[in-house]
Design brief:
four-stranded mixed beta sheet; Myosin_TH1; MYO1H protein; 12 strands; alpha+beta; 5 helices; eight-stranded mixed beta sheet; cytoskeletal motor activity; globular
């Protein structure tokens, strides 16, 4: 009887401590925890670097709205900007690296070059989000094959866990995130496909190999 009473008191005590902790959570801390739960569901046990990312809080955004060119703000006027981060975009054909911004609004993702919008992806049309199981920061945003889109978007992000988490939450497409091993296929446009190969090496690099594939080390 004493053992049962002790167990019941322990459960009641733990329940009270949890209730107290939840009540004292700030709105910002609550958002952090909600985002980290999504990150765990997507990446835990699948991608290198996940465990190290646990102690790193996500920022609300990497760049402020004021950091965007006024022409870009005018073009996306009326959409609530949620997250902006610098990225490196790789061309779908020659794989040339280009500095860009990824702008996530309430309804769409934009790839931005200075004062130009290079590509707009409405979340409702997003077909998938792919990353590798290695420690690289590559993410591929898969888009539908139609005249509005040039092809899938290949980006390199410094804060890969944060960026992918923000994207899949805003798009409500958590189930479409895939962590792949070895290689993945992406759409170049006009019915063509390309291959990206992931491998391990002494130093990180991204290059076009002799076979024409994009190799990520």
């Amino acid at each position: 009887f004493l053992m049962q009473t002790s167990e019941m008191l322990q459960k009641i005590c733990m329940r009270n401590l949890v209730r107290k902790y939840c009540r004292e959570l700030t709105a910002e801390r609550k958002v952090q925890l909600q985002q980290k739960v999504v990150t765990s569901a997507v990446f835990s046990g699948k991608k290198e670097g996940y465990l190290e990312s646990l102690s790193q809080p996500f920022l609300e955004t990497r760049l402020k709205e004021n950091d965007l060119n006024p022409k870009v703000l005018q073009l996306i006027h009326g959409e609530n900007i949620k997250y902006v981060t610098p990225v490196v975009k790789y061309d779908r054909n020659g794989f040339k690296a280009r500095e860009r911004l990824l702008v996530l609004t309430q309804s769409s993702a934009y790839v931005v070059e200075m004062a130009k919008i290079k590509q707009k992806i409405e979340y409702s049309t997003l077909k998938g989000i792919s990353t590798s199981n290695l420690s690289d920061g590559i993410v591929v945003i898969h888009v539908p094959e139609d005249n509005k889109q040039k092809g899938d978007v290949i980006l390199q992000c410094e804060h890969i866990f944060e960026t992918v988490t923000k994207l899949c939450i805003l798009a409500n497409k958590q189930s479409l995130v895939k962590v792949v091993k070895g290689s993945l296929r992406f759409r170049v446009g006009s019915g063509k496909e390309g291959t990206m190969v992931f491998t391990v090496g002494p130093e990180p690099q991204v290059f076009k190999d002799k076979t024409g594939q994009l190799t990520v080390v």
